[in-house]
Amino acid sequence: MYFFFSAVLSLFILPTDTVAPVALPEIIIATSPKEYLHMEKQPAMVSSFSLEDMESKRIHEAKDFSLLTPNLYLPDYGSKMTSSIYIRGIGARMDQPALGLYVDNVPVMNKNNYDFDFFDIRQISILRGPQGTLYGRNAIGGVINVHTLSPFGYQGTRIAAEYGNANTIRYRMATYQLPQEDFGYSLAVNHAQSDGFFTNQYNDEKADRIRNDGLRFRVQKQWNNWQLDNIVSFNSVQQNGFAYSLYDEKTNYVHPINHNDPCLYNRMGISNGTTFQYRNNTVQFSSATSLQYTDDTMTLDQDFLPKSMFTLTQAQTEKAVTQECILKSNPGNAWEWLS
Q: What is the arrangement of strands in the sheet containing 90-92, beginning at the earlier edge strand?
């Protein structure tokens, strides 16, 4: 009798629609067209960072990953000129790196452009281990895949600003618009500057003043089984770098910074990457074309004395054209291939 009364009572107390439907948020999966396995099945160690991870952990540039990624070391030699990258003990002090960098499926050819300000990065994946089979040269130690925010994955306007010691200012503004279901565009601007913390005794000016500027304009279009993605990016660095001073090993005395010749690093980089992707029930095709231009100059007072003895100036201008085509089968087939 008790069980019958409880069952009848529950019919009046609990309506039939007590379980409300829950709408799950949209999930955007960022991956490279060259990968043919899921991330957890990759034959390599992978460290991945989302947009929330980078903003909460204050990851602003590539050197910040050295504190968070095992076996990765990007030393700071006093400027944003990336002269060395070490991963799993493999690296080169000069010339070609042992780690490749891809930004939105486009390879970055000049390693001096590796050290750029991160803003509105959707996801970064660091693959540790030889990747030359899929990524070619300069990938013996691994690859960093960077995917920026897309208007298909986010719509709206993002504004952020920071202020810190030494008049350190950082702000970024971006808008992501989807005026049509199959067409979107975005514009993102980033600025960072700092007066520096070290003073050059010779001229009483800051020896580590820096200013960074970046811009990224993106257009995406989808039709039928095709997708077009074109990204124009610009970055500029103006830096008083290499705040070095003499060190007396016998007395452990650190001399003040005192050099007469300039120590600086200036860089301007422009790139345009165009990606076409096609997919049907059988195959996936991807074509990535890029035009890249880099112009940078490093000047270094190598004696670090208030006398004109040894001064080094290193300047380079590089123009590069890249083209990659990837054709692979859809996942899930008994036989999967990639070319």
A: 72-73, 85-87, 90-92
